[in-house]
Structures are given as C-alpha cells and as structure tokens.
Design brief:
7 strands; 269 residues; Rossmann fold; 38% helix; alpha/beta; seven-stranded parallel β-sheet
Length: 269
C-alpha cells in the first residue's frame, strides 16, 4: 500500500511556516504521516530513522515531501545510540539555526507475555521506546533552553505514547511498559521545564492501520479493535498526524503535560 496522495493544508495560513521539526521513526507509518503533515503546513522537517525504506511501500519520505513541494531532509539515526541522537540535534541546528519541535515517534515491538519474553528483548524494547525518548528529549532540551522564545515558547516536544500505556497490551508486556513510561516522562518534563518555556505533550494512538503486516493485520486483532472502538473504523496515520500538528503549533497554547488520545473513543467506552 502506498500513500502518494497530496497532503492538503488544514488552514489557509500555514501554521508551521518556518518552524524546524525533527520526527523520529519517520520513514514509514505514523511517523511518515506526521512528517508530511508538518511539511505541508510549512515546517522544515528532518526525517530521523535507521533507513529510508518504507514498510508500506512507496518512495522515501523526504523525497515524497520534496515532490509535494516542501522541504525535508533525511538524517540516519538510531535513537538507542546517544552519540547519534546528539549528532541529530547538532546537525539540525547547524543546518537550520534552531529546533522548534521534536516528535518522538520511533519505536519497536516484540509481542510476548512475561514468561516468553527474553531479557535481551525486554532491554532492547525499553532502550528504543523509552530510553530513546529520554535521549532525544535531553538533547533537544539542551538546545531549546538556549533559544530565544517565539510566541512564549522556546520549543515543543510531542511524544508518541499509546492507549496501551494506560491499559494492558495483550501479550505485549515490554511495549506497554515502555509506553506507560513515555506518558510519565512527558508529564515530568512538562513540569520541570515549563518555567523555561518548553512545552511537552504526548499523543496516544489507538489501533492505527499503517499498512504494516504481521500481528497488526491478524484478523482476530483487527476484529477485537473494531469491536472495542466506538467510532467504527480503524485509525489512519493521518488521524495521528493531525493531532501532532495541533500540539506542535502555536494554536496549542497553555497546554503542557497532557496526553491526547487518538483512539476513536476506545478509552471512553
């Protein structure tokens, strides 16, 4: 499945014009949609990922954004490696002069219940999904605290958590724990750095159909998700991207430390 349709702007005036944004894990899926949405609104976007390959098919994200008439660059980054994360921030600032928005989307999964989860897999998932967010937030905030505020804000961070950070992820222990940690880390950073004009929020997707295969397309998993979601469809990557765009923009004023659910009402039911 490819996603080459144009991304329309959601306002006449581009809400992210001139803003510098990093999106981790943006080669595919939700991260790809986020990068395209931010770029369509005028942002200069850095695609941070291990690869340019698109899981669901299609041309690399940065090339697709360029073909849409917007600006994006790819920066190969493993969020589990501190030096690479620090290099990502440094290179972004060297190229564009500042960093306005960081979107922490990169994550991995290895669905296993406790008794089937090997220790090395546990640590690997936490290292990417939770410690990766820590590394990226730390490097970004080191830069943001040195920047002059724009519209009261020195920088904005949006972390991708999950409904499964709030409720059990069936047979997927490490993923759920990592996302619960992301929600807590979001609140803590928001509290600690509000006084320095840095905003930190989270977006928690429900069941999002990204075109990825495997467990995500298991008929039983899909049927359960549809049955549990009051809005009778699966989510789409652009549903999440639109929520991220709001939190990344100056329209999201006086909002920090929040988790915005994008789940079709799953958590309300």
């Amino acid at each position: 499945m490819t996603d080459i349709s144009p991304i329309p702007s959601v306002a006449v005036e581009m809400s992210m014009a001139g803003k510098v944004c990093i999106v981790t894990g943006a080669a595919s899926g939700i991260g790809r949609a986020i990068a395209r949405r931010l770029a369509a609104q005028g942002a200069r976007v850095v695609i941070a990922d291990l690869t340019t390959d698109v899981i669901e098919g299609g041309e690399p994200t940065a090339e697709l954004i360029a073909r849409d008439g917007h600006l994006a660059v790819f920066h190969r980054t493993d969020v589990a490696v501190t030096a690479q994360v620090d290099g990502l921030i440094a290179d972004t600032v060297a190229r564009f002069g500042r960093l306005d928005v960081l979107v922490n989307n990169a994550c991995i999964r290895h669905p296993r219940p406790l008794l089937e989860l090997e220790e090395q897999d546990w640590w690997r998932i936490l290292d990417v999904n939770l410690s990766g967010v820590y590394r990226c937030c730390r490097a970004a905030i080191r830069q943001m605290v040195r920047q002059a505020p724009v519209n009261e804000t020195r920088g904005r961070i949006i972390n991708l958590s999950s409904q499964h950070g709030l409720i059990a992820a069936p047979d997927d222990l490490a993923y759920g724990v990592s996302k619960a940690g992301v929600d807590y880390l979001t609140r803590q950073i928001a509290t600690d750095y509000a006084g320095r004009k840095i905003v930190c929020n989270a977006v928690a997707p429900g069941k999002i159909h990204t075109g990825q295969g495997g467990r995500a397309t298991d008929p039983a998993v899909v049927e359960r998700a549809l049955r549990r979601t009051p809005w009778r469809r699966l989510g789409r990557p652009d549903d999440v991207a639109r929520a991220v765009l709001f939190l990344a923009s100056d329209d999201a004023s006086f909002i920090t430390g929040a988790t915005l659910m994008v789940d079709g009402g799953w958590m309300a039911a």
